[in-house]
Amino acid sequence: MRSVCAMTALLSVCSSTSLRSSAFIPRAPFLSLPFRRDLSCSKLRLARSISTAAAAVKARAGGGRPLMEVRAAQSGEIHVIVGPMFAGKTTALIRRVQAEAATGRTVALIKSDKDNRYGLDSAVTHDGTKMACWALPKLSSFQDKLGTEAYDKVDVIGIDEAQFFDDLYDFCCKAADHDGKIVVVAGLDGDYKRNKFGSVLDIIPLADSVTKLTARCELCGHRAFFTLRKTQETRTEFIGGADVYMPVCRQHYLDGQIVIEATRIVMEVERSTVTHALK
């Protein structure tokens, strides 16, 4: 019996010793945690250094202004409204600018001084809605006309008949990208020949939004995407109203061009005949 107890005790001691020795099996040093911790700190320090350097560069680019002011000055927008004549572009522009004014923003409206159909001091829709505006030959003269202090306070700039401004692209870039203005542009995207008109299409890559309006075809009542010139005038810039232009659908635009071309040929033949008779 004593031998059995001694044997049991010996097995117990051996088992306990085995467990303790297995609990302390030598292992490779665990270096990953300290190594990762050091790497993380290094990355953090590097990120902070880059951020600080970037902030300094941006501050210098902004003439020494604080970083938040530089960001605020670069938060402008550009919205473009296009379509044929009588599509309501000026109406949409005025509504947008007035809505911005209702939120407390300072607004200004500009139009080309080439459009003097309803006077130079107002942008006027075809149904008679009007809003006071600046009539200018070039958009670049707006800041000088308004004054730098007043210009800095303007939040929203509306531009009507934008196709007449040669410096539209440069102005929109500066006003939105550098001055933080919301710029709303309304104009014809195409002329009576359906060719590009002015620089309106050039600013679409700059735009936050583009709205294509349509009118009603005067000949069938369907949606009108094009402007048909009813006279023989061939100048691209020829300002007029319903006496000169009408909105038409695709089919009536093509039909109208055929009629206009036939009329032109007939008139040229008649002039040639009269000239020959006079000789």
Automatic annotation (TrEMBL):
Catalysed reaction equations from the record: thymidine + ATP = dTMP + ADP + H(+)
Pfam families hit by this protein: TK
EC code(s) of this entry: 2.7.1.21
Key word Zinc present: yes
Entry-linked InterPro entries: P-loop_NTPase (IPR027417), Thymidine_kinase (IPR001267), Thymidine_kinase_CS (IPR020633)
Transmembrane segments: none
An example Gene Ontology biological process: DNA biosynthetic process
UniProt keyword annotations, A-Z: ATP-binding, DNA synthesis, Kinase, Metal-binding, Nucleotide-binding, Transferase, Zinc
Top-tier EC class: transferase
Listed GO MF terms: ATP binding; identical protein binding; metal ion binding; thymidine kinase activity
Family: Belongs to the thymidine kinase family.
Full protein name: Thymidine kinase
Organism, scientific name: Brachypodium distachyon
